[in-house]
Amino acid sequence: MLSFCASLLASFSLTGIVAMLLRDGRVTGFRNPDDFGFLVLGTMGVQGVAWILIFIFLRLHEVRWRDAFGLNQANLKKSLLLAVGALALALAAGWLLQIVSGSLLGRLGVPPENQRAVEMLLAAKSVWARGYFALFAVVIAPVAEEFVFRGMLYPFVKQLGSPRTAVFGVSALFAGIHFDAGTFLSLFALALIFTWLYEKTGCLLAPVVAHSLFNATNLVTLHFLPQINLWLQKFLHAQLLK
48 with 12: CB under 8 angstroms? Predict the structure, then answer.
């Protein structure tokens, strides 16, 4: 597991260096932060590499994907239904806490900003860029992130004899790696929900599905219903200021 994490961190660092060199070199597709090249490089350099590392990790340990993600469980349908039910809680907690964070940061004089992923989606103009982003958000990221955080880090820390550190520490790390103060609380709450779901079902596919549906719902809202999303944020913000 340590080799897995070290390789992922190395890839993350290398991706940052390559992105900087390409930007400074004014390479086509890498001239502006919102260019499609940066989207592909940033996602494949971390979550994409995580997929490769998952393949290697499972092969070395002679574990099949079906076994690793719990597809052979007798209560799989029940686990997936619970994942769908957890989606409602995840959406409510995510949206509400993001508004709370925005209000708190506003009072501290820190202007709220869109999460980098949201900015990249809104800036994507081509069908190919939007399609790739959807694939990344709904499939690539949920599988990679849930395997790393709920499938590897959480059980590892828990086995060290500190269940609370495993729950709250790994959840805080999950929120922190997104490098966005405005979404830290909401992502922390999501991580807690996904961890509870994993514990409740014993099936890694359950948090993967919940994570994927959460991303898909936000993607649809941002893309097709921006006015409703904006109205919801303003409404919740107004309620908090009462």
Answer: no
Neighbours of 153 (CB within 10 A): 19
What is the phi/psi pair of residue 112, to 5°? -65, 145
pLDDT digits (tens, 9 = 90+) for 112-166: 555 555 555 555 566 777 788 888 889 999 999 999 999 999 999 999 888 889 9
CA dihedral 140, 62, 13, 30 (to 10 degrees): -40
SS3 string, 59-126, reads HHCCCCHHHHCCCCCCCHHHHHHHHHHHHHHHHHHHHHHHHHHHHHHHHCCCCCCCCHHHHHHHHCCC
- The pLDDT confidence band at residue 233, using thresholds 50, 70 and 90, is low
Question: What six digits make up the tokens of 97?
Answer: 């806490």
Question: Hey, what are 201's tokens?
Answer: 């079902």
Q: How far apart are CA 117 and CA 133, in angstroms?
A: 9
pTM over 0.90: no
Q: How many CA atoms lie within 13 A of 241 on its CB side?
A: 12
CA 156 – CA 150 distance, rounded (Å): 10
CA distance 7 to 9: 5
| Rounded Cα distance, 111 and 105, in Å | 7
Structure token digits, residue 225: 């219903």
